[in-house]
Amino acid sequence: MATTAKILDGRKLAADIRDKIASQVKSENLKLGLGTILVGSDPSSHSYVAGKHRDCAEVGINSIRIDLPESATESEILASVAKLNSNPNCTGFIVQLPLPNGVDANKVLESIEPTKDADGLHPLNLGKLVLQQKAPLPCTPQAIYELVSQNGISWEGKNVVVLGRGTTVGRPLGLLLSGKGASATVTLTHSKTVDLISHLNRAEIIIAALGKPHFLKSEMVRAGAVVIDVGLTRIGDKLVGDVDPSVYEKVSAYSPIPGGVGPLTRAMLLRNVLVLAQKGAH
After folding, report:
1. 83 is catalytic
2. Of 9, 55, 119, 242, which one is the catalytic site residue?
3. Residue 26's domain spans which residues?
4. The overall pTM is greater than 0.85
5. 184-200: per-residue pLDDT in tens?
6. CA within 20 to 30 Å of 202's CA: 59, 132, 226, 282, which one?
7. Is the domain of 113 the same as that of 178?
8. Among this protein's residues, is 96 annotated catalytic?
9. Are residues 79 and 115 in the same domain?
């Protein structure tokens, strides 16, 4: 049976956002710089960072790239953070996660100057998200919000279930969607959740952010739900999401893998660089 579900196209939306950013950068003659710190040789991380720099070139944002070997010590990574903190040509930057074993990722993130935190993951900026104050938002939660909203689907009053409570997606997404802007009712589930199926069966919108290939099966999802797939696992040369393809026959809308949340996450990073530049101008 052919699916009638709406495919939520992140590539098209990301391209539209990049066009708007490029236009603003050009018309206002903005001198913006996005920095990245990449540690190690993880293929997925290298692919993500390369994509971010391609996006920068497309919209007229300068790229500042620091690549460190897998053997880099925590102090060497912190020194690279300090370098970008003090670089006047760097408007905002990210430290690509995950970091090698033995490196305290929280310590590294805390060392980022909050006014240059392009990923929105510094404790101060996450605290502002809790308080619903203006700050750069974490990129993937921001992308999920936009992907659904820009396709004419309202969050307001919806029962939303998030699979996964990670610090880059699940937790900040729960804060974002339960805030006054989205006003959804959010259930954050995890490995200790009792009777997960009952939560999922009630959900009008499901966000899968576990990193477990094809975890979400058709029988877990109510007919007509909206399903957003965030989890990515590389199997051989193929990227596989958390959502089993059988789900697509049952839902009203879904984000594909690839081409859903991923491209939009990178576009949100560029938007955050703009936001940081505008805050710095006041």
Report:
1. no
2. 119
3. 19-122+264-277
4. yes
5. 999 999 999 999 999 99
6. 132
7. no
8. yes
9. yes
